[in-house]
């Protein structure tokens, strides 16, 4: 029996040795796969690092561009505010001139009639009706402008009459 026991033990040891060799082969394949994956992983990490650097540079460029845009926009807003302020001043000045012209026209129309001279209000309304009929329905500004033009032409006529 002892001979058979030795043989059983050797068969068991041989079987264990075969299992160990099979496990070593399997382990070797897995290690090779890990090494191959390690090369791919290093390449992937390298590419990721390059992409991260590019992204950082792009973000820095965007920040710089944003700063430039902010400065440009700020300057344009300041210029626009100056233009708006200038326009407001010009509108106020135009309103003042328009009010003065209105007062001049109303004063001229309300002035006393000289013997033999036509009524200025009647002359003005006839002039407007004759030369610019579309003004009849125009706004106050257009009517005042027409009155100013009529007074200017009337003044030019008087000046010509005085010179002649």
Brief characterization of the structure:
This protein has 164 residues and is mainly alpha-helical.
Structural class designation:
mainly alpha
- What does the overall shape look like? rod-shaped
Q: Can you count the beta strands? A: 0
Whole-number total of structural domains: 2
Radius of gyration: 52 Å
Stretches where pLDDT is under 50 for at least 5 consecutive residues are: 133-138
Largest sheet: number of strands, sense, barrel closure: none
Specify the helix fraction band.
Answer: over 70%
Give the overall average pLDDT.
80
Helices and strands, in order, run as HHH
Beta-strand level of the residues, as a percent range?
under 5%
Count of DSSP-assigned helices? 3
Taking the alpha carbons of the first and last residues, their distance comes to 163 Å
Describe the structure.
The longest helix has 109 residues, at 2-110. This protein has three helices and no strands. It folds into two domains: 25-91; 111-164, no CATH class. α1 crosses α3 (140-163). The protein has helices at residues 2-110, 120-131, 140-163. The protein has 164 residues and is mainly alpha-helical. The model is unreliable at 133-138 (pLDDT under 50).
